[in-house]
Structures are given as structure tokens and as C-alpha cells.
């Protein structure tokens, strides 16, 4: 296990399986079947309920031809595997997606993910994808990539606090 993976898993092991639920907003691995298998094995050891919003590095994401052949592997670890979800934080409706809102500049200026990006129609969005330390990607979107939160998941309270800024 790399130092990065060890740090991430240490933070995840601190979650309380009785009170916490983990939403992973994509990219559990670096891509490829071997990386996927290692990541799923590590995550399967956690006792906290987990849900996955698929990311562009996850072989189960529909960006990949044949992605459905990996669905059973992911479903064995995650309570749900989907591309978009909704929840509430601080009484506000929140969208969950791997990608930032459409029109948010991608740091690599790529357009191949545009069809998977939601339009900003006024709701808050939590997303991953950017892998940067920046927590805000626009007025109503917050990046919850581990890189923006010291290699640990952001809590609902921290997200609510970020939304109030």
C-alpha cells in the first residue's frame, strides 16, 4: 500500500459505522482493472455504509466501453453505484456528481467529459474530479476530492460551513 493509500485508509477507518455514511464521488482508483481490484479490496475492509458516484478513473463509469462488466465488483463493496445522486445538508438540497458543473473550466481544458457534467440550475453541487487543493469550483459547487480535505472525507458539517461562506 502506498503512503497515499495508507493515509486515506487511516482517515476512513476513523469513520463510525453506526453514525456515518460515506459518499465517494469517484476515482477510487487510478484506472485499470488491477488498480480497481486493489482499491475495492481496501474499501471492502471498512464497516461504514458506502455509496459511489462513479468517476472517470473508475472502470465501472460509462465512459468506458464494457463498464457494466465491473458493476458486480463495485456492488459487492458499495450500497449503491450511480452517476448522480441527491441528498440534503443543512436543510438544503444538494446534488452529488463526480464532475463539476458544466462550464466550469477543467484544468486540462478537456471536453470529453462535458456530456457527464450537470448544468447549474441553482442547486448546490458536491463533486470530485479536480484533484486539487481548491475546495470551491464555483459559486454553488464544492470540490470534495480528498486532495482538498487533507486526504480525508469532508464531513457534512464542514460542507455546510463551506456553503455558508
From TrEMBL:
Belongs to the metallophosphoesterase superfamily. YfcE family. Residues 7-143 form the Calcineurin-like phosphoesterase domain. InterPro entries: Calcineurin-like_PHP_lpxH (IPR024654), Metallo-depent_PP-like (IPR029052). This is Metallophosphoesterase family protein. Pfam families: Metallophos_2. SUPFAM superfamilies: Metallo-dependent phosphatases.
Amino acid at each position: 500500500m502506498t503512503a497515499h493509500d495508507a493515509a486515506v485508509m487511516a482517515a476512513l477507518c476513523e469513520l463510525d459505522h453506526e453514525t456515518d455514511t460515506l459518499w465517494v464521488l469517484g476515482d477510487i482508483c487510478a484506472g485499470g482493472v488491477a488498480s480497481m481490484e486493489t482499491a475495492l479490496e481496501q474499501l471492502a475492509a471498512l464497516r461504514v455504509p458506502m455509496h459511489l458516484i462513479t468517476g472517470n478513473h473508475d472502470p465501472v463509469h460509462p465512459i468506458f466501453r464494457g463498464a457494466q462488466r465491473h458493476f458486480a465488483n463495485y456492488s459487492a463493496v458499495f450500497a449503491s453505484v450511480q452517476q448522480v445522486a441527491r441528498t440534503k445538508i443543512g436543510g438544503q438540497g444538494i446534488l452529488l456528481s463526480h464532475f463539476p458543473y458544466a462550464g466550469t473550466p477543467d484544468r486540462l481544458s478537456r471536453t470529453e467529459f462535458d456530456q457527464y457534467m450537470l448544468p447549474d440550475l441553482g442547486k448546490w453541487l458536491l463533486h470530485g474530479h479536480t484533484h486539487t487543493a481548491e475546495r470551491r469550483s464555483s459559486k454553488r459547487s464544492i470540490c470534495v476530492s480528498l486532495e482538498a480535505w487533507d486526504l480525508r472525507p469532508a464531513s457534512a458539517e464542514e460542507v455546510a460551513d463551506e456553503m455558508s461562506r
